[in-house]
Specification:
The structure is a homodimer.
Chain A: H1 4-14, H2 21-33, H3 36-52, E1 54-55, E2 62-63, H4 69-72, E3 80-84, H5 87-96, E4 102-105, H6 123-130, E5 137-140, H7 146-159, E6 165-168, H8 184-192
Parallel strand pairs in A: 3-4, 3-5, 5-6
Antiparallel strand pairs in A: 1-2
Helix pairs in contact in A: 1-2
Chain lengths: ~200, ~200
């Protein structure tokens, strides 16, 4: 145990996800010897995230005003909504430059074991958006794992009566990967989804 | 890239030791959805470490006043000084409850490859303390690695003319460990230092 302030900081850091007692101690001693300006910047950045960042009232992505940058952008089209689990998935898809429509962030995936059902996700808000009539395609880009697949299946069933085109991102071999290291489910999906060249 | 404040926080967190881009993002999103009171506490703890914590003017351990808790404690004796590299080593030794003397924190170990020589450590200050005459034993508790051994050897040579008892912590098998998993140097030391029972 250290004296007062340094032990308090170790305790607070230890509460963060992925920071164990050893890393908390290491970070605390780094802070102790760091430039006061850098520490001030970190502590201000923490406060500002709480004060300024909220969730877009349309798509629930992170935003600094009522709507996020993407929902506000008039150069993007309203014909397709790409449904993802988390804001970080929006960032990942934006990096590809492949999509120019809008997003909808569910805030997670259906996971009965953790008590997360459809009502805990932003599904009702998605349904309201789909009723606008402008949207022609719903792209289901939830994670390719059990919870993500379950959520995509659930959404596909709900949306079907609306006559929209509903798509799911392709599963297959990761580019740059080695065929022999692919797991059997991925390799199976790659076969299923094979395309003529 | 995220909007403003959240990206700033990811960038700031990414500068901390042992926090990569993925963990920085994970912590930033945790902060975003955390209780504002918890975030305030963390940001205050960061500031307080910079404002309140300094180094003990006697032993260079972390302290909140001019002297650290151990140097101020009148129930501890002044006959032995235990020399360690870092404040965290003081904490480790205090946990054993084996030592009731004082400490001296060098602030590192001699490491020519990283440009750390004797002048970069608190060795001059240690020599001044030893001249008080009260001290009978100097316990060298630097790390049992190349840099720690070099530092201990250097200190032993410097202190020898003063006629003090100079000791080094025992090397040997860790308690609770498996003999077969001990590396050969540790096992060699354990043989060397074997004791009659």
């Amino acid at each position: 145990m250290y004296e007062g302030a340094i032990q308090d900081l170790i305790d607070e850091l230890g509460r963060l996800p992925g920071v164990g007692p050893k890393s908390a101690q290491r970070i605390a001693f780094y802070v102790l010897s760091a430039d006061p300006v850098d520490v001030k910047r970190l502590s201000m950045a923490l406060q500002r995230v709480k004060d300024q960042v909220r969730f877009c009232t349309t798509c629930f992505n992170v935003a600094e005003s009522e709507q996020c940058r993407i929902c506000r952008d008039p150069r993007r089209h309203d014909e397709a909504i790409c449904v993802v689990e988390e804001p970080k998935d929006v960032v990942a898809i934006e990096k590809t430059g492949e999509f120019r429509g809008r997003y909808h962030v569910l805030g997670g995936a259906i996971n009965p074991l953790e008590g997360i059902g459809p009502d805990n996700l932003r599904i009702r808000e998605l349904m309201t958006r789909l009723q606008s009539g402008e949207i022609k395609e719903l792209i289901l880009a939830t994670d390719p794992n059990t919870e993500g697949e379950a959520t995509a299946t659930y959404l596909a069933l709900m949306v079907k009566p609306m006559g929209l085109r509903v798509t799911r991102l392709a599963s297959g071999l990761p580019v740059g990967g080695d065929l022999e290291y692919a797991d059997e489910i991925t390799l199976g999906r790659a076969f299923e989804g094979r395309r003529q060249i």
